[in-house]
Amino acid sequence: MNTAVRRLGSRLAMALWLFAVWLMLWGRATALLAVGGVIVVALVYVVSRLPVVPTVRRVRPLWFAAALLEFAWDLLVSSLVIGWHALHRPRQVRGAIVEVEARTRSELILLAVTTSISLRPGTLLVDPDWDRHVLRIHAMPVRSRQEADAARNGVLRTEYRLMRALMTSEDMSEQDGSTGEDR
């Protein structure tokens, strides 16, 4: 599929999403609200130059299921660690800002990674640098360089799981130009 068709499909999907949000905000669907929604969506596109939403080219169901299970495991473990520290040593818990350089060039994968790490207790996205593909996260407990490296590696593992499960246009084009090695 060529780029123009993908771009048009992406914009139509975003327009449908905005239209659905418009109707949900009103809480009902009438002909007048539908016409008004179409006008509002058209104006939003004309005024704001919305970006093209990255698309997923291929979903690998088994890898996706594995990513969900690993996320559930990470959620359980991080909840237990944060709970233990909150109950036993609440004043001794230290955190750190950890910078993680992402391997993916897909904004969709980066968004999924940032959402995933922000849902886990003990990690929170502080500052995404979308242009350089760098994420700054607050992680806790972090008392040493090794624990900071462990937090960074946890984010990179999450990214790898999502890259394995969801193939995006950006990552596929980069993979086509590479030596074929698994990153």
TrEMBL record:
The keyword Transmembrane helix applies. The keyword Manganese does not apply. The chain crosses the membrane at residues 12-42, 62-84. Pfam families: MNHE. It is a multi-pass membrane protein. InterPro entries: Cation_antiport_E. It is found in: Cell membrane. Keywords: Cell membrane, Membrane, Transmembrane, Transmembrane helix. Belongs to the CPA3 antiporters (TC 2.A.63) subunit E family. This is Na+/H+ antiporter subunit E.
